[in-house]
Amino acid sequence: MKSKSAHRFYATIAIIGINPYVEIPPDVSRAFGKRANIPIQGSLNGVPIQGTLVPVGGGRHRLYINGDMRKKTGTAVGDEIVLSLEFDERPHDLPVPTLFQAALDANPEARASFERLPPSHRNEYLAYLKYLKTPKALERNVRKVIAALLKKKTGGV
Q1: Exposed / middle / buried, residue 59 (Cβ in 10 Å: 0-12, 13-18, 19+)
Q2: Tell me, which fold does domain 7-87 have in CATH?
Q3: Paired strand residues for 87
Q4: What is the 3-state secondary structure (H, E, C) of the chain?
Q5: What is the spatial distance between Cα 72 and Cα 49, in angstroms, rounded to a whole number?
Q6: Distance from the CA of 123 to the CA of which of 33, 37, 98, 132 falls in 20 to 30 A?
Q7: Is the pLDDT of residue 138 over 80?
Q8: What Cα–Cα distance (Å) separates residue 12 from each residue in 9, 49, 77, 99, 140?
Q9: Pairing of strands 80-87, 60-64
Q10: Would the CA dihedral through 41, 122, 1, 10 be positive or negative?
């Protein structure tokens, strides 16, 4: 069962490689009732955030503190922060770029392959396409995504 109440705790921002994060206390991880990724909303030092608790084994989770979160809160690696987190029930599907939707509509096999993907994998493709800077880059990468989806359909990589 997913926890619907807010869980408030203190944590210190650490870093793995280039990724700042905080360890979620075991009792908070258990309160959310699952070992998979957990969408959350809440606050970091009183500033609203949303993110995903990522499982790290043993029923534990981490929350990666992205650049936007650090910028809005003026925090850095090594800082102690206060977090208040609750399960985020809102849908997290990203919008489908018009050019990508047109390509899916023109290729029923690729569309079927895309629709069979787990939501998290669909969102990876959509997030990738969302951040492309130019129409030319979007067009080129839509073709690459369609090709990848067709390979998935035929059992390729």
Answers
A1: exposed
A2: Elongation Factor Tu (Ef-tu); domain 3 (2.40.30)
A3: 40
A4: CCCCCCEEEEEECEEECCEEEEECCHHHHHHHCCCCCEEEEEEECCEEEEEEEEEEECCEEEEECCHHHHHHHCCCCCCEEEEEEEECCCCCCCCCCHHHHHHHHHCHHHHHHHHHCCHHHHHHHHHHHHCCCCHHHHHHHHHHHHHHHHHHHCCCC
A5: 10
A6: 33
A7: yes
A8: 10, 17, 8, 42, 42
A9: unpaired
A10: negative
5 vs 41, which has greater pLDDT? Answer: 41
Q: Which residue has the tokens 């499982």?
A: 55
The two three-digit tokens of residue 120, written as one number: 């998290």
Residue type, 22: V
The residues spanned by each domain of the chain are 7-87, 98-153
pLDDT interval class at 37 (50, 70, 90) = confident
At residue 105, what is the residue type?
D
Residue whose pair of structure tokens reads 């629709």 in the numeric block? 115
